[in-house]
């Protein structure tokens, strides 16, 4: 698809794209400013996008500011993007009815949902989605509800043209350039977007917009803007997010740093909620008051909760040190054994949304002995 | 299971018999109410089912009966948690949900022709009972069978009759030890792991299957290694919190392993690097 020429979508025609997606039966979900953050929710009007807004992120910090440039995607990320659309924070898995004789009937639950088109997915978000695909649909057992949503998801990806201080996708090997899993790819310029299709259905939508080809100069500028986002990253994940991280972590399970970080960590689980790859969930029953029906639900869980490691009346991970160590050794360690890749995609969300600003790259630097500062000559 | 089947969905089963094994342990004999499903249901010793109690929830329980016994399958359950304490109150004729079997069972094929040593401790014997039954039914295919069972107190000992029967079978040796025992206790008093040192073991042709508290299995592994049994002939059944049983929910992770789908039975080298570290 790399040979496909980019077309040019002026800012004022962005609404046509939303309209075309709606006409094709999609519900559009896009970024917008709400309660001081950029969140993804249903969008019907291009004016709802975060025009002229930029995020500033640091460990334990996230704030938005207005910038003069009237662009829709001059920010890095918000707390969440794709994950809650496919892996629902809470959903019914099946229902069971019980009649007067006590006979049970189990009914699979397949929600009738309108297909979603997400506008503004970033390279890191797509890397996270591919990892969750491995968890939920590429193994022996398939989560049919995830699969249904995943297959119908229409992805309009946007290359980043800005990185926050917590972004480290370059070292994680996931961005900022989008290279896979998109139906349409856009790169923003001061007055519009270069745009191309990455799938047949993407091409079909693009064709309905009847756009002209982008000029060479526009394509070069788009490339430069993506490169700028890469160059401005100051953080890196040690050992380039490779399986060497697993080896160094499991060789250091008694490292004093685990105790040290446990003194700061609140075990709140914010990192696992915002992480695009964390997949833990718990299951519970919701019986109806008349006793005739019960709904079996799944809900996001976190390895930072006490209940996560419950076993026969006891708890395997009974302190924060064990829980933080579980999270980190899994995320960038045993993840390689399970899914043949790191579970970290370099988005930096766990750093920004940690109430005490624990920085995954800093913790890995402390244990691996390799710096988390990016050498800008790289 | 294939890709179009929903691995989360249970199927209705009826309790055909309920046996009280001890004050807190009971066995449920079960049959799927769909005869076609019951006919095609097969499992291997060491595998487990997710047992669902209406309106309360699911719990992972190993299957205790012989897989060749086609009319029903059994779960021996200790009433210890929210779901199991409620399951305890059920009677024959009542319905529950079952999905499974899940996981990898005991290496009973590769154990053929070998001396099999089964070691269990505490109340954790259920996962190996079906292995013992399986071997005894085919004892001519195995060199010998040693059954080592440890309990905290002689009152905790269940399945008296079965152990008595096994004790009298040829090629089979039974050793039972209670840490503390009543005066009438006919077996040994002391730790079952202390009996390993004096066992007559052919180290090069023996295979060990164990389950029970990890602390007991740690001691036992040391004992068997001292008897020169190769580590890759030591197998153990691991327990962790399980909710989905299919490697999705994340609770049963043990390093890079999902106990639900990679286990629950592991050879010792597979888990060795974490077995002495608390918190995994």
Low-confidence runs of at least 5 consecutive residues of chain A: none
User: Which sequence of strands runs across the widest sheet of chain B?
Assistant: 10-9-8-7-11-12-15
N-to-C series of helices and strands of chain A: EHEEEEHEEEHHEHEEHHHHHEEEEHHH
Which segments of chain B are poorly predicted (pLDDT under 50) over 5 or more consecutive residues? none
Morphology call of chain B: globular
Strand order of the largest sheet of chain A: 1-11-10-9-8-2-3
Instruction: Look at the structure and give the mean pLDDT of chain A.
Output: 96
Biggest beta-sheet profile of chain A = 7 strands, mixed
* Assembly context of the chains: heterodimer
**Greatest contact between two chains:** A-B, 54 and 46 residues
| Percent of residues in helices of chain A | 25-40%
Question: What fraction, in percent, of the residue positions of chain B are helical?
Answer: 10-25%
Which structural class fits the helix and strand makeup of chain A?
alpha+beta
Main sheet properties of chain B:
7 strands, mixed
Count, helices of chain B: 7
The share of residues in extended strands of chain A comes to 15-25%
What's the helix count of chain A? 13
Calculate the terminal CA-CA distance of chain B, rounded to whole Å.
Answer: 29 Å
Basic shape of chain A? globular
The gyration radius over C-alpha positions of chain A equals 22 Å
Order of helices and strands of chain B: EEHEEEHEEHEHEEEHEEEHEH
Plain-language structure description:
In chain A, the strands form four sheets. In chain A, strands 1-11-10-9-8-2-3 form a seven-stranded mixed beta sheet. Chain A has a four-stranded antiparallel beta sheet with strand order 7-6-13-12, with no helix packed on it. The longest helix of chain A is centred in the last third of the chain and has 20 residues. Chain A has 13 helices and 15 strands. Chain A is an alpha+beta fold and 378 residues long. Chain A is globular and about 65 Å long. Chain A is 32% helix and 23% strand. With 280 residues, chain B is α/β, with parallel strands linked by helices. In chain B, the strands form three sheets. A seven-stranded mixed beta sheet of chain B has the order 10-9-8-7-11-12-15, sandwiched between helices. Chain B is globular and about 50 Å long. The relative contact order of chain B is 0.14. Chains A and B meet through strand 6, strand 7, strand 12, strand 13 and strand 14 of A and strand 6 and strand 14 of B.
């Amino acid at each position: 698809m790399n040979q496909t020429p980019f077309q040019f979508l002026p800012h004022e025609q962005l609404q046509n794209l939303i309209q075309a997606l709606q006409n094709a039966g999609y519900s559009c979900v896009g970024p917008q400013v709400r309660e001081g953050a950029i969140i993804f929710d249903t969008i019907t009007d291009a004016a709802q996008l975060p025009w002229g807004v930029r995020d500033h992120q640091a460990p334990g910090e996230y704030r938005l500011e207005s910038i003069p440039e009237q662009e829709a995607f001059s920010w890095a990320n918000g707390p969440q993007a794709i994950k809650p659309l496919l892996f629902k924070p809470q959903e019914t898995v099946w229902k069971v009815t019980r009649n007067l004789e006590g006979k049970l009937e189990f009914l699979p639950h397949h929600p009738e949902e309108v297909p979603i088109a997400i506008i503004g997915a970033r390279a890191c978000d797509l890397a996270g989605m591919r990892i969750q695909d491995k968890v939920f649909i590429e193994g022996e057992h398939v989560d049919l509800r995830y699969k249904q949503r995943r297959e119908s998801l229409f992805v309009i990806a946007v290359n980043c043209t800005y990185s926050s201080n917590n972004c480290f996708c370059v070292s994680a090997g996931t961005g900022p350039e989008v290279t896979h899993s998109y139906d349409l790819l856009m790169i923003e310029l001061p007055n519009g977007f270069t745009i191309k299709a990455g799938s047949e259905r993407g091409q079909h939508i693009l064709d309905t917009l009847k756009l002209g080809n982008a000029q060479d100069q526009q394509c070069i500028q788009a490339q430069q803007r993506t490169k700028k986002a890469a160059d401005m990253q100051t953080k890196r994940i040690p050992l380039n997010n490779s399986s060497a991280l697993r080896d160094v972590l499991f060789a250091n399970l008694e490292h004093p740093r685990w105790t040290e970080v446990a003194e700061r960590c609140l075990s709140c689980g914010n990192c696992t909620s915002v992480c695009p790859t964390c997949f833990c969930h718990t299951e519970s029953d919701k019986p109806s008051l008349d006793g005739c029906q019960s709904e079996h639900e799944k809900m996001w869980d976190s390895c930072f909760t006490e209940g996560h490691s419950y076993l026969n009346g006891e708890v395997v991970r009974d302190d924060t040190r064990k829980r933080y160590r579980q999270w980190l050794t899994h995320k960038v360690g045993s993840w390689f054994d399970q899914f043949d890749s790191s579970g970290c995609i370099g988005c930096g969300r766990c750093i920004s949304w940690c109430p005490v600003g624990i920085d995954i790259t800093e913790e890995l630097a402390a244990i691996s002995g390799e710096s988390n500062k990016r050498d800008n000559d790289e | 299971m294939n890709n179009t089947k929903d691995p989360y969905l249970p199927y209705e089963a009826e309790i055909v018999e309920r046996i009280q094994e001890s004050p807190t342990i009971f066995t449920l004999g079960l049959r799927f109410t769909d005869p076609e499903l019951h006919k095609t249901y097969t499992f291997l010793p060491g595998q487990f089912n997710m047992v669902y109690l209406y309106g309360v929830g699911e719990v992972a329980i190993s299957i205790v009966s012989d897989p060749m016994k086609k009319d029903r399958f059994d779960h021996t359950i200790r009433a210890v948690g929210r779901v199991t304490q409620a399951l305890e109150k059920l009677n024959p004729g009542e319905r529950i949900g079952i999905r499974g079997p899940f996981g990898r069972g005991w290496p009973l094929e590769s154990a053929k022709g070998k001396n099999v040593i089964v070691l269990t401790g505490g109340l954790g014997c259920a996962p190996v009972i079906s292995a013992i039954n399986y071997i005894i039914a085919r004892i001519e295919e195995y060199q010998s069978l040693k059954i080592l069972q440890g309990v905290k107190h002689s009152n905790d000992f269940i399945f008296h009759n079965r152990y008595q029967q096994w004790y009298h079978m040829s090629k089979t040796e039974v050793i039972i030890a209670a840490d503390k025992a009543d005066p009438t206790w006919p077996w040994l008093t002391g730790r079952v792991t202390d009996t390993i040192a004096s066992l007559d073991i052919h180290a090069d042709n023996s295979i060990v299957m164990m389950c029970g508290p990890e602390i007991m299995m740690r001691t036992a592994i040391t004992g068997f290694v001292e008897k020169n049994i190769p580590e890759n002939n030591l197998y153990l059944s691991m327990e962790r919190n399980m909710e989905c049983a299919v490697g999705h929910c994340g609770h049963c992770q043990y390093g890079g392993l999902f106990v639900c789908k990679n286990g629950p039975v592991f050879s010792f080298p597979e888990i060795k690097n974490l077995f002495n570290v608390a918190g995994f």
